[in-house]
# Entry
Amino acid sequence: MPDPPWTLDQRLVDGFAFACRPGCGLCCYAAPAVTPTERSRLIQIAPELAWDDPLDAVPARPDGGACRFLTSCRCTVHEARPFPCATFPIGVHLGPRAQASVVLSCPGLSLSGLGRRSDRPGSQTASGLDSELGAVLAELARVGEVERRAIGSDWTRAMRRAGLRPDVAALDRVRATVRSDHLSPSVEDVVATPLPAESDGLEMLPLFFDAEFGRVALADAEGGADVLAIREGGGVGERLASFRRPERIPRTSEEATVLLRGYLDYVLERDATIGATVLEGVAQDPTEVAAEVRRTVAEIGGAVLARSYWRCQLHGRSGESLSEQDVADGIRATDADYLDRATPGHWL
# Structure
């Protein structure tokens, strides 16, 4: 008997409001995957931008630049944009289920729902995301039984190597164990937050949108971070600053603390977080998996606080004390970076 098609679990999308921010273009600093049909449509609209090699992705401009179809922060092929562009800021992870979540680096998303995670996902419907969800549902319906089984097999093998059942219930037990140990970063998570170096390639650097400086990347520097404005055509437009790493955990307001905890809970709710941790780790039983997931979530929390600190300094503030808005800025500088990690599941 054939496996039933996936249904979409969109509880991690509910409660978020989205309105694309003009002049941002952050999501276009990527090389979106394309089908042969999508590639043909793109080339028909913009034949001067045809690429010779029949890749399954639109090649981005070199040296960390934007998609070749972006001009002055506007998509020139918007009506024919490929599936990853049509569904952003929604991402769908296929593993024990088809789970949708939002990419919180997008400045067009309201983060207010993160401060009310005690309400649990699904307490409010999403707004401004109808067309994106429609595109996701249409694509999900096209995933065939053979592909579903292959994805399921990859997920099952990875989970069983870690001593876990491959179902959602097993993941929920890991989450419950992690939550029993307070979700917060340590001093080490903040002061030693990892960053790639500029020499690794500008396309590898964490990127965020700043209303004053545009697309900004963070690169590891001796004792701290270099802050770089990235040009649409590629390369560093301006070396904005170099900052030392924080020496302690910045103080956070009550509202900022609630927001950070809500975000870390959201990260934990993503199946991809546990999948990526299992793939990277060596855990062999559920207790070890929970400990590794706890370290992953704490590392992400440390990255949020460190990047909040640097973003404050970029705008002339010390960063020693963080407001709710400061932590929101840190989340936006962090989320997409950690979503890029490999998982034994599959991103739709």
Observations:
- The radius of gyration is 20 Å.
- The mean pLDDT is 92.
